[in-house]
Design goal:
Shape: elongated
Largest sheet: 3 strands, mixed
Helix content: 55-70%
Distance between the termini: 122 Å
Length: about 1000
């Protein structure tokens, strides 16, 4: 039948004027069945003014009329404009009165359906805000009191639309709505055919964790320490021997019950995104279970994705830990991850939810037992190996971190290749250019290098080697609960866990309108900031490698935006898969826990190095290089340095450390002021190993391995760095030919020599820190000392006011006359005048020369063919002025002046010039000094030059140039012999 607007208005007129209930009822039924059944009919009915008439009739006391009116209004409210018109006609107040007072299930169902459609309207729902305090108790009362399945479905549908509001959510919880929802869900999913077990009495402290005044060590401490840490297989048997898989729940067979369960899942999706109080969890734990939700976590379940997301969201609340654990959520998640050949493979979001559940629950020892029994550890390692998502690998590492005190599990993880994965992840973290990694590195650099020492009981004078060795005994058996530095507030075996606060609220996930197409019985169908702080100081690491705290789980925080497309505004097919679908987060995944991936990697590597059986991967070059790179970036006050110390102490890695040149890398740390002390501490650790019997044998074997020249050279370099005993050092340098190898690397002029730079630093370190070779100290001028302003390089300025004699010397190569360069035609000699009396007073040699029957005295001139003008002018100037000059002459002039002071026997001037020769000695003039000293048999300056070659703190390239320049000298043989003699003599002087 096609309705016209006149017919509709006529029918509405009858409803307005008639007082006969039978007539009214028949008219309403006619409108409901023939007109208000599709979108066009609803618009025609609203245009004719039918909504206000229905609002007036809703208060009729006749239940039959009330039921049809609610049905019509429910259909009309699928239209946005009709919803607004209804709330403007003040339909909410009588609707709430009906919900609170009418016990008829059919009327309650119609009222809930209408209220749900009003709540779905964005504009109309604003009018409901002030009525949440009345709506929530009324809906909860209907849910609890009615037995009609359709009524409960509509009531839960209302809750689903209103739970988006935090105000309604609070009223819903205060009305015990969550408890009633879970009770009904348990009842619907209950498998009545399963055998019943007697319930166990459970203390409140086990429901939500330990009591505040209960120490963590008192709860499973002995079990966790003595069993899980050493023999987790026995621990698992004892913990799980009486446990069975929960088979109490099954999918209901009735279609209505299936629809009710689906609607409850939709409500749980929203409830799981909210923060629930401790009291609510305590009541829930006593009376309900999450096992019905876990039932859907299986391969063939259509609601698998929704159930996983609900459980994952509940993981954010620490109070939900007990219910998640007792429901075997971790077992279901593990089995789902390990399933193969699934008809519907896990999506990325489902895999993420499984990892999140395991990460949360693995903080508990009993849950870890279930993971081990499921055999999921291998799968977790394989997921890390194959994953291309940094956030996923982060969560997986957090799971493995909870097994750090379980030696058997750690052995399995190491066998599966955990160390290379940790090293790869750490290396990526250290070299990544991502903003998050860069910012995190800067934070750790600022915190790590400024961290204060926190263990005053550690005497710094104790041996690093002995303290570390003693502390490692028994470290493998410590549990998190026994660790003095544990940051946990509960035992690792307790039922408490820490979770991030999630804010992924599902906003208006159902945009379709409820369909009135057939009848009122139609269906309705919708990362984490972990920071673990390890504040162990360098001294506390040296004193004791005590067990570090087990890190709390790092849970993935997701910002999910649920959106749906509306194909048909009248179809109410609210697909649960769409409701639970994950949209890739647009915002950067954050962590709001006390930790980060880098902290977990740091702790895991450290714990691995404490194990009795050390994996060979720890001694590989990539592992050592990455650890040293981390120490360079973050400083040495962390567990990266602890781990490196433990590796260095292991004799089984000593040969690899020598061959790879780790000793040279450690020495580079001593060149950084902030890590100088730590660099020497690492070298001291290697010294203890190298001077032990095993270390000596390895060094001798490498030094004699002529087939492997690189190993020979690296062994010689390592000997120079780490051997501190002079007697032992002499044996290696002389008998082991290490010194010859070192000098060969320094003097070999080949571009393919890879270790010349290392040899240069090794010779310097050995000379300075082992043999104690130093340069003579020179007197430092006082700050207020007088500085002479005479320009020594000026060739025309007179050196005295009364010049009554002169010197004839060779002109310098750069001498000029009046600013013009002298060419070859100009005479090569230069005349420099000076005062005769001043010379005679200064030196007896000059006095005899100028005042006796010598040619110099008759001519009044002295010819000095072996000296230059600059050297002579400086010498003559120092006779009258011993002050320092603003610009000192070149080193050759200093040497000539020094030689003249010796020739003419002027002791005071000789002493002064000797100090200045030492003061201005550098890599450019060391060879000149050595050659002069050897030529003139000056033993003291020869020793000074040789000491400079050995102990000068030059860059590697400068030292190479220094040595290779001496190799081309006339005195190369004498120089090389002096170097060897200096080293051997210093070793013998104190070692024998």
């Amino acid at each position: 039948m096609l309705w016209s607007i006149e017919q509709v208005e006529g029918m509405l007129g009858v409803l307005k004027t008639s007082t006969d209930k039978t007539v009214i009822y028949k008219c309403l039924v006619k409108l409901r069945t023939d007109l208000v059944k599709d979108k066009d009919g609803i618009v025609l009915f609203r245009t004719a003014g039918g909504v206000p008439v229905m609002v007036r009739l809703i208060s009729k006391l006749n239940e039959k009329i009330m039921e049809v009116v609610l049905s019509i209004l429910g259909n009309c409210c699928t239209d946005e404009q009709a919803c607004i018109e209804a709330v403007e006609c003040k339909v909410i107040a009588p609707l709430i009165t009906i919900l609170k007072t009418i016990p008829n299930p059919l009327i309650q169902c119609r009222a809930c359906r209408m209220l749900g459609n009003l709540a779905k309207s964005k504009k109309a729902s604003l009018f409901l805000n002030v009525h949440y305090g009345a709506i929530a108790p009324a809906i909860c009362h209907i849910i609890e009191s009615t037995s009609a399945v359709q009524t409960r479905i509509m009531a839960f549908r209302v809750c689903r639309f209103l739970l988006i509001s935090s105000q309604f959510y609070k009223h819903f919880l205060s009305s015990n709505g969550f408890l009633q929802l879970m009770r009904i869900f348990v009842a619907v999913m209950k498998n009545n055919e399963a055998p019943k077990e007697s319930p166990q009495d459970i203390e409140v402290s086990t429901l939500i964790g330990l009591k505040r005044n209960q120490h963590r060590e008192k709860y499973f401490e002995e079990v966790a320490r003595n069993l899980e840490g050493v023999r987790s297989d026995i621990f698992d048997y004892q913990m799980l021997k009486n446990s069975t898989r929960n088979n109490e729940y099954v999918m209901p067979k009735e279609q209505e019950a299936i629809e009710l369960a689906s609607e409850i899942l939709k409500c749980l999706m929203l409830l799981s995104a909210q923060q629930i109080g401790v009291r609510a969890w305590e009541v829930l734990s006593r009376n309900t279970s999450f096992a019905p939700i876990v039932y859907f976590v299986k391969e063939d379940s259509e609601q698998r994705s929704s159930a996983l997301k609900i459980l994952s969201n509940f993981c954010k609340d620490p109070c939900a830990f007990y219910m998640l654990s007792t429901a075997d959520a971790i077992v279901a998640a593990c089995e789902l991850l390990m399933a193969v050949n699934m008809a519907k493979p896990l999506s990325e979001s489902e895999c993420r939810h499984c990892v999140n559940i395991i990460s949360t629950l693995s903080a508990d020892a009993c849950s870890r037992s279930k993971i081990r029994r499921c055999g999921a550890l291998r799968k977790l390692v394989a997921m890390i190996r194959d994953s291309h998502s940094q956030s996923e690998r982060s969560s997986l590492f957090h799971i493995l971190n909870n097994f750090q005190y379980d030696n058997i599990s750690m052995e399995l993880l190491l066998y599966e290749g955990l160390v290379p994965m940790l090293v790869r992840e750490l290396n990526d973290y250290l070299t990544s250019d991502e903003d998050h990694h860069r910012r995190r590195r800067e934070e750790r650099m600022q915190g790590g290098k400024k961290r204060k020492l926190v263990d005053p009981t550690t005497p710094e004078t104790l041996s690093k080697f002995s303290k570390t060795q003693e502390s490692t005994i028994g470290s493998d058996f410590e549990s998190p609960s026994s660790s003095p530095r544990s940051y946990r507030t509960t035992s690792p075996c307790s039922s408490r866990s820490m979770s991030p606060v999630c804010s992924n609220l599902l906003a208006n996930d159902d945009d379709e309108n409820y369909s009135p197409a057939c009848s009122d019985d139609d269906d309705d169908d919708d990362d984490i900031k972990t920071t673990t702080t390890n504040n162990d100081s360098r001294e506390s690491r040296i004193a004791s490698n005590r067990a570090q705290p087990a890190n709390v789980m790092d849970l993935l925080k997701l910002i999910d935006e649920g959106t749906e497309t509306i194909d048909d505004t009248l179809s109410d097919k609210e697909d649960l898969d769409e409701l639970s679908s994950d949209v890739p987060p647009k915002l950067q995944q954050l962590r709001n826990q006390a930790g980060d991936t880098i902290d977990v990697i740091e702790n895991l590597i450290y714990r691995i190095t404490l194990m009795i059986n050390k994996r060979p991967e720890l001694g590989k070059p990539e592992t050592l290089d990455t650890l040293i790179r981390a120490i360079n970036i973050f400083g040495a006050n962390n567990n990266f340095a602890n781990a490196l110390t433990n590796i260095l102490l292991e004799s089984q890695f000593f040969a690899q450390i020598i061959k790879h040149g780790v000793v040279h890398q450690l020495y580079q740390l001593t060149k950084v002021e902030e890590m100088r002390k730590d660099g020497f501490a690492f070298l001291e650790t290697l010294t203890n190993v190298g001077e032990s019997n095993y270390g000596k044998e390895e060094l001798v074997r490498l030094l004699r391995s002529e087939a492997d020249l690189n190993a020979q050279q690296r062994a010689a370099i390592s000997v120079a760095y780490i051997i501190k005993s002079h007697r032992l050092l002499y044996q290696f340098l002389y008998d082991g030919n290490a010194l010859t190898l070192l000098f060969d690397m320094l003097l070999r002029k080949k571009s393919d020599n890879l270790y010349a730079d290392e040899a240069a630093d090794a010779v310097t370190a050995m000379s300075r820190f082992t043999l104690g070779i130093t340069l003579p100290e020179h007197e430092v001028d006082e700050p207020n000392a007088i500085i002479c302003s005479t320009q020594l390089k000026s060739s025309t300025a007179p050196l005295h006011d009364n010049c009554d004699m002169r010197f004839l010397v060779h002109r310098d190569n750069d001498e000029d006359v009046n600013g013009v360069a002298v060419d070859e035609a100009v005479e090569e000699t230069l005349s420099i005048g000076f005062n005769k009396q001043l010379l005679c007073d200064t030196s007896e040699v000059f006095n005899k020369m100028l005042n006796s029957d010598f040619r110099e005295g008759h001519k009044g001139e002295i010819q000095l063919r072996d000296y230059t003008a600059s050297g002579l002018r400086y010498f003559l100037h120092l006779i009258s002025c011993h002050s320092r000059h603003q610009s000192m002459p070149d080193y050759a002039a200093l040497l000539q002046a020094f030689e003249m002071s010796r020739v003419y026997i002027i002791p005071e001037l000789e002493s002064l010039l000797h100090e200045r020769l030492i003061e201005f000695l550098d890599s450019h003039n060391c060879l000149r000094l050595l050659e002069w000293a050897l030529k003139n048999y000056h033993a003291e300056l020869t020793e000074t030059a040789i000491s400079y070659y050995l102990c000068a703190t030059l860059s590697s390239q400068d030292k190479l140039l220094l040595f290779r320049a001496a190799e081309d000298s006339t005195y190369a043989r004498e120089w090389f012999q002096l170097l060897n003699d200096a080293v051997y003599e210093r070793c013998r002087s104190t070692g024998y």
